[in-house]
Amino acid sequence: MEVDEEKPQIIAENPNENVIRERNAEIVSGGNVFYNPVQEFNRDLSIAALNVYRQRLTKERSEKALKKQRRKVKEQEDEKPTPVLEDPPVYEAGTRYEDGLRILEALAATGLRSIRYAQEIAGVRQIVANDLSRQAVASINTNIRHNKVEELIEPSHSDAMTLMYLSTQPEKRFDAVDLDPYGCPNRFLDGAMQCLVDGGLLLVTATDMAVLAGNAPEACYVKYGSVPLRMKCCHEMALRILLHCIESHANRYGKYIEPLLSISADFYIRIFVRVYVGQAQCKMSMSKQSWIYQCTGCETFTLQPLGITKPNPTAGNPQQLKFGIPTGPAVNSQCEHCGHRHHLGGPIWSAPIHNPEFVQDLLTAVQETTLQSLGTQRRIVGVLSMVQEELQDVPLYYTPDKLCCVLKLEIVPMLKFRSAILHAGYRVSYSHASKNSLKTNAPPAVLWDILRSWSKRHPVNPERMIPGTPLAAILTKECTAVYEFDELHPEANPKSRKSALSRFQENPTPHWGPGTRATIMIGDNKLPKSYRNQNKKQRHKASEQQAEDTPQTVDDHDGDVEHLPKQPKLEATA
């Protein structure tokens, strides 16, 4: 389905250079409070998700009230007519409703996100825009008055954790909590779990992708309680590590999470989860986490769940489950494919990371409602379409380029590889996290067998067949089946790719990224700072070395220049 890009609205020139516009919101700032225009996709997606969440929450509350009325009528044995479900109330954006959502933006900075929430989310009761910086709160107050949303937004000058801990009473809890910190969000998760209502929505952003992607496993364990592995699927692993971290915080208070949407975009990950209360459901958490084994040679990975569930035959209720601990390990001491040892990572969230019904509602809302005019609507449609196509029951993915790199083969074209898997009777999909992803339920042995079949068409250089390497161990085995590469399978080319949707956007601007704290990441001031910080340490060392090598000179009374010998450095003595 082809989606035309929305034409931007023409806005007249503003004489005030400090005014930043995003849709209908205007931010007045002197440049000392953080703002990053690249995060517009994040804000647009959050607005769409909160609108859909409000619709679902209103429907759930109406159905709950209806069940309560029917139960009351049945207990009283009245002859009154049975209550029926009424049409849900119609809400408008920008208007305060006493039965609406109460939203907390714990780290508001300029307040742009809160202002857009007030202007674009229908059915809001109150939005608390909090920040620890006094300068940021002053900017929030200015922007609230400038946008005339004083009725909906309450500024707050407080520590985010303290504010959430002080909001644990039932009448003070929030329907939605938005955490968008600079870096790791783990310190805020404990308070967020306690200040959310039952069934509340938690929106979390993490920008420390180097830690989550495996560059610093020791730091990731300290922050998230999980060990990452250096893999091609590191972006999806980052999502699953964060989900594991959120679930572990929820379980401490007898709560559990339901992931609605988990997105890896640009330089960050964004997660939307609902948090429910339920001691019985918390017992399922162990079976949703897994260790991951990764071969050090061929990089094949294997997941082993921390727990297992199975029907309890002795119970009268067939829905009752029995919990157990799996036997292990799931792999031998040496890889069955290449004979190398394994790395052990995790635990990670191995259950589905999206709710298909929520994603469908979100996609419908973005395409058919007032959300069509979002600035990044075209990209949102492309990403959500890919999310719909993902295999929900298959954690992580491979990439053809890495698989072929292990065997020093010519890279198999993506459609040919997907066709071979589909013709073999397995399922396959892309992942929204990588344009070269290969998410499939085919076991690794089948993938290596497909590549052995491909090597017969495109032989490997015999000089590379070195004993002891993964290449030699895998390619010396015989193919166990014949695979079809030439005939394109009908499902090999997904609908989102056929329709040329905006699936993987290029970098939007030069020098883009997470940005710098308390800085307006737009305009001409950003580029000089970016250049100035490049190789700063190396340039400083070079200048110090040059100063040491340059001989000192003094002028004598006759005007001649006398070169002084270089003075040795003296060590300090006690």
UniProtKB/TrEMBL annotation:
Question: Which stretches are tagged as biased composition: Polar residues?
Answer: 544-553
Q: Where is the composition biased (Basic and acidic residues)?
A: 554-574
Q: Does the keyword tRNA-binding apply?
A: yes
Q: Which keywords appear in this protein's UniProt record, sorted alphabetically?
A: Methyltransferase, RNA-binding, S-adenosyl-L-methionine, Transferase, tRNA processing, tRNA-binding
Q: Name one GO biological process term.
A: tRNA N2-guanine methylation
Q: Which GO terms describe its cellular component?
A: nucleus
Gene Ontology terms, MF aspect: tRNA (guanine(26)-N2)-dimethyltransferase activity; tRNA binding
* Enzyme Commission identifier(s): 2.1.1.216
Q: Which reaction is this enzyme known to catalyze?
A: guanosine(26) in tRNA + 2 S-adenosyl-L-methionine = N(2)-dimethylguanosine(26) in tRNA + 2 S-adenosyl-L-homocysteine + 2 H(+)
Segment Disordered: which positions? Answer: 63-91, 491-574
The organism's superkingdom is given as: Eukaryota
> Which family does the similarity line name?
Belongs to the class I-like SAM-binding methyltransferase superfamily. Trm1 family.
Q: What is this protein called?
A: tRNA (guanine(26)-N(2))-dimethyltransferase
